[in-house]
Structure formats: C-alpha cells, structure tokens
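thought: fold this chain, then report.
action: predict
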Amino acid sequence: MKFNPTGVCCREMNFELSDDNKIIDVQFLGGCPGNSLGIRSLAIGQDAKEIADKLENVHCGNKSTSCPAQLSKALKEALKSSSNS
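observation:
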C-alpha cells in the first residue's frame, strides 16, 4: 500500500500487511534514514493495530505530527478499508 504523508519530511510510505494484519514490510522515501530504519525494524512482524496505537501521538519537534504518527494514520486507514471489504 502506498501512503503520502503530510507535515513531515518523508514524501511517501509503502507498506504491506499480511492477511492477519501483521506488518510484512515498511519503506519510507525521504525523512531521517536512521529513524525510518529503526521504525521499520520494530514494526515488521508486529500487529498493525498495535503499532498504529503506539505511534499515533508521536510528535517531531514543534510539529503536530511525525513520520511515526503518519505511519499510524496510514495503518489505520488500511485496517479500516480492509474491514469494509
């Protein structure tokens, strides 16, 4: 799935979920490489809802959002659309 975040340095997020909503992969285009790789390493294999809940209110500096918070938003949108299918 492709997600275009807003309010952050990252320009695009791509992720894949398994049939049981585990995170298979996460890729960030742009943003802080070390943080993106860290988030990716921690998220792979984990339940998408649990990761989304944990990252939801993370802020970056003075911004009201962050790459982790935007990933949370993307995951929640994906989970909502998969439950409506």
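thought: worth noting. The helical segments are 33-43, 48-55, 67-83.
final: tokens above.
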